[in-house]
Design brief:
The chain is an alpha/beta fold. The protein folds into three domains: about 100 residues, 4-hydroxy-3-methylbut-2-enyl diphosphate reductase, catalytic domain (Cobalt-precorrin-4 Transmethylase, domain 1); about 90 residues, 3-Layer(aba) Sandwich (Rossmann fold); about 90 residues, Cobalt-precorrin-4 Transmethylase, domain 1. It is about 40% helix and about 20% strand. It has ten helices and twelve strands. The protein has a four-stranded parallel beta sheet with strand order 1-12-10-11, sandwiched between helices. The chain has a four-stranded parallel beta sheet with strand order 3-2-4-5, with helices on both faces. A four-stranded parallel beta sheet has the order 7-6-8-9, with helices on both faces. Helix 4 packs parallel to helix 5 and helix 8 runs parallel beside helix 9. The longest helix has 20 residues. The radius of gyration is 21 Å and the shape is flat. It starts with a strand and ends with a helix. The mean pLDDT is about 90. It binds FE3-S4 cluster (F3S). The site of FE3-S4 cluster has 13 residues, from helix 1, helix 4 and helix 8.
Length: about 290
């Protein structure tokens, strides 16, 4: 029986960079003595967050509506902004309250912040294709300098009317579905909007999904490793389930209760963007040794 890992699996560039930033700060902590916080969990993976907590890194609850008051009064401390980014007002508030603010926003997300900031100044209404409750979208919204609307479905795109006449700048959440984005672009074109369309979907998501689909199509059993709150991991599970009837979704090795059907030739493994390498290796080794 063969065990194969999908071509792209686990941490994406932006998440790896953010976690590396936390470890760099931890290394400096002996000198600076500063308490380290992350604004919201650095990654949607409880294992990683727990490990950092054991090293003294505390999480400020930025998730609940990105509440700025959560950081009030905490001075002489370092706060790390995670890959999703935060609204401009939140970053400014942190800086004004004397916190050392380290921005680990993924450069691909930062690019969207710059696009929407400029678009508003140039008189465009910004439309973000994405999930309005997602922190990344909250962050993007918070860098807009003019009218902004978040739409998630083709139906919402059909019902949309621009406030500012026809000048519309359309961007997407980095993890938005590509086909859905294309449909929204077509709906906007039919409406005749003088659009500035920027596809800001991140390749890491597409690549990971394509690799998962390819592997699931040939595998007899598929294992998807990811945090239960991680939407990209859940998406991988959906894709793999569509190709392979025996697909398991696990957070850690403890969740894996494998019942392999007879005559299994290939077990495929993939992992969401927030899953650390050591966890992937652990699962891989377990399946290799025990089956
Ligand atoms: Fe950045 Fe793409 Fe990851 S936007 S955080 S590299 S999924």
């Amino acid at each position: 029986m063969e065990v194969k890992l999908a071509e792209c699996a686990g941490f994406c560039f932006g998440v790896k960079r953010a976690i590396d930033t936390v470890y760099e700060q931890l290394a400096k902590q002996a000198e600076t003595g500063k308490q380290i916080y992350t604004y919201g969990p650095i990654v949607h993976n409880e294992e990683v967050v727990r490990e950092l907590e054991q090293k003294g890194v505390q999480v400020i609850d930025g998730e609940a509506g990105l509440d700025v008051s959560a950081i009030d009064g905490k001075t002489q401390r370092t706060v790390i902004i995670r890959a999703h980014g935060v609204p401009r007002a939140v970053q400014e508030k942190m800086e004004q309250s004397g916190l050392e603010c380290i921005d680990a926003t993924c450069p691909f997300v930062k690019r969207i912040h710059r696009i929407v900031e400029k678009a508003g100044k140039d008189g465009y209404e910004v439309v973000i294709a994405g999930n309005p409750g997602h922190p990344e979208v909250e962050g993007i919204r918070g860098w807009c300098t003019g009218p902004v609307k978040v739409i998630e479905t083709e139906e919402e795109a059909g019902n949309f009317t621009a406030e500012n006449g026809e000048k519309v700048c359309l961007v997407s959440q980095t993890t938005f579905n590509y086909n859905k984005f294309q449909s929204i672009v077509e709906i906007f074109q039919k409406k005749g909007y003088n659009g500035n369309v920027v596809n800001t979907i991140c390749n890491a998501t597409e690549e990971r999904q394509r690799a998962a689909r390819d592997l699931a199509a040939e595998a007899d059993v598929m294992i998807v490793i990811g945090g239960k709150n991680s939407s990209n991991s859940r998406k991988l599970y959906e894709i793999c389930s569509g190709e392979c009837a025996h697909t398991y979704f696990i957070q850690t090795l403890d969740d894996l209760h494998l019942e392999l059907p007879k005559a299994v030739r290939l077990v495929g493994i993939t992992a969401g963007a927030s899953t650390p390498n050591n966890l992937i290796e652990e699962v891989q080794n377990y399946v290799r040794i025990n089956f």
